[in-house]
Amino acid sequence: MSERREELLDELYNHTLNGEAEPVVALTHEALALGIPAVEVLFDGLIPALEEVGRLFEEGTYFVPEMIIAAKAMRAAMTILQPLIAQTGAKPLGVFVMGTVKGDIHDIGKDLCNIMLEGAGFKVIDIGVNVAPEAFANAIRTHHPDALGMSAFLTTTMPMFKVNIDYLTSLGLRDQTLIYVGGAPVTAEYAQKAGADGYAPNGSALVRDLKARLKITA
Amino acid sequence: MNPRERFHAVVNHREPDRVPIDWGRHVGSIHRNGYAKLAAYLGDPDLQNKDVILDRMVQNVVLDEKLLQRFHVDFRWLSPHWVGVREVPGQDAYIDMWGITWTYMLNAYSLTGSPLRNITTLAELERHPWPDPYNPAIFTGLRAIARHWHENSDYVVVADSIKGGLLTKALQIRGYEAFFADLALNQPFAEALLDKLLWLYKEMWTSYLKEVGPYVQLVYFTDDIGAQNSMMISPDTFRTLIKPRLKSLIDHIKGQADVKFMYHTDGSVVPVLGDFADMGVDILNPIQTSAMGMDTYMMKETYGDRLCFHGAVDVQQMLPFSTPAQVKYDVAKRIWDLGRGGGFILSSCHDVGEDVPPENVLAMFEAAREYGQYPLKLEGVLKPEHLRPVVPEPAAAAAEPQRARPRPRR
């Protein structure tokens, strides 16, 4: 089985890279039928594929369309794998709450980060766009995330980072989670001034930074 | 030189008497809140048009003619009208002539509904209630305004975009994620949508230029193919699906009137700068210097013989977060980088937001006048490293697409 296992995972990896959902689904079923555990299909096939997608995006070979279809292919496989993984009691690498700040409904940057986080094995709770400070606070209380991400696309909505962080501080919630900020006009310097723990220019960089802070080596 | 002579020199890559100045188009005016602040700062309570919105989506204003004269603006813009706009009952939201929904949020309208989001067939695409490209109401009154400026002034008369470009409109009408996926997985559908839009734009521009063609020197087409750190789509996708259609539109427009063509895209677009010139773009706008790789000195050195540049005064980082002295320095640098030998028109690269201090707006226009005189004398103004920068390799030549690596084995 071991040779066929490697072949199958290679094919799964290649079709995920190319964003081909149909063969990805077929190969996922085939892998499971062959007795490959769902967790291994995820960690040895799909996650390396999404990591490579992220690398190719950072290198300037992949663009938004290629990333979106790879994520769609992975999601199609995950609907099969998720229930099986849940049965084993395996935990995600961590929990990440993500939202776009109040007054801003841009979601592409946020969604691309979600793709990379899920692709790396994190559980992502996307609380949407135009998210009020109270909703960020509620999400911390409800989900106890390892990290919370706030996105803003406009210079006029970036100030909401500090507003949100000050609000979380006033409720005593600030130190219960790491806080990341990001979005087109955001810089590392601006993130620091707003009181965030971290900043990343793209999803792959976010995953690298988050893994380092959470001391995840895989 | 008068403004039209100045423009003529610039677009023919000759030095004018001074760098031409532009402000007041639909993606290059000032937000109404910023305009109120500017009026207060200027101590001019009589400044007109505070409530005359140029583009409802971004909530910028039609600038007072008095202000255009004060800042020595060389261009006067004609704006097509919005028709077929429907209000959404019970909300501060509207549906535009394409069927796209925009909802008020914070201080402007954001896209909240894409009408073709859920369709799957070409028949459904055809059944969409497309706007009527022959609707004369889109251009009512523009002929008289254009003729007035043409006959009674020396200003450069510009036909502003029928708002929305080819890729941008496809993304808005189909939904960003859905159309990005179409581009990668369902090209026949993507091409059918692009062709539909292309046909509509061509017919609209025919109607438009029938009205104003004899009086305008420049037309403007607003698209967006760039994101902050890279293009939104690959150079290959651009060259295969977008570029030929844009070229066909440009040829069409130039066949209707004796005009120069200015193409708008925000963001990082370095790999396709040469393609813009191939397509027949005369002037590239807005040169978003805060986006990755948009090095103005390199752009001029590499493409300055084939492209003119318009904009370059950044509204995302520079104008909101600089002192007036820093603004003036940045303007001097852009004039030096892009304006040597002509070929540059200075303007805010997008709408000036309400977060820009009025002092900085004034500093931008003062610097344009002070440093924009030809022959350029910026030796005492710019630091040596900005007078003779090291030219970075253009990304197009430097970055060979990488191949995917094989799956790592444990």
If you had to describe this structure to a student in words, what would you say it looks like?
The complex is a heterodimer of chains A (218) and B (410). Chain A is α/β, with parallel strands linked by helices and 218 residues long. Chain A folds into two domains: 2-88, Methyltransferase, Methionine Synthase (B12-binding Domains), Chain A, domain 1 (Orthogonal Bundle), CATH 1.10.1240.10; 95-213, Rossmann fold, CATH 3.40.50.280. Chain A has nine helices and five strands. Chain A has a five-stranded parallel beta sheet with strand order 2-1-3-4-5, with helices on both faces. In chain A, helix 5 links the parallel strand 1 (95-100) and strand 2. Chain A is elongated, with a radius of gyration of 18 Å. The two termini of chain A are 25 Å apart. Chain B has one domain: Alpha-Beta Barrel (TIM Barrel), CATH 3.20.20.210. Chain B has helices at 3-11, 32-42, 65-70, 122-127, 142-152, 166-174, 176-185, 187-212, 235-256, 273-279, 296-303, 318-321, 324-339, 358-371, 384-387, 395-398, and strands at residues 53-55, 60-61, 75-78, 86-87, 93-95, 101-105, 108-113, 156-159, 218-222, 260-264, 283-285, 308-313, 344-348. In chain B, the strands form three sheets. Chain B has a seven-stranded parallel beta sheet. In chain B, strand 1 (53-55) and strand 2 (60-61) form a beta hairpin. Classes of the chains: A alpha/beta (218), B alpha/beta (410). The A-B interface holds A 6, 9-10, 13-14, 17, 19, 44-45, 48-49, 52, 55-56, 59-66, 68-69, 72, 102-106, 108, 111, 130, 155-157, 184-185, 187, 201-202 and B 103, 105-107, 110-112, 176-177, 180-181, 183-185, 227-234, 237, 290, 315-317, 320, 353-355, 395, 399, 401-410.
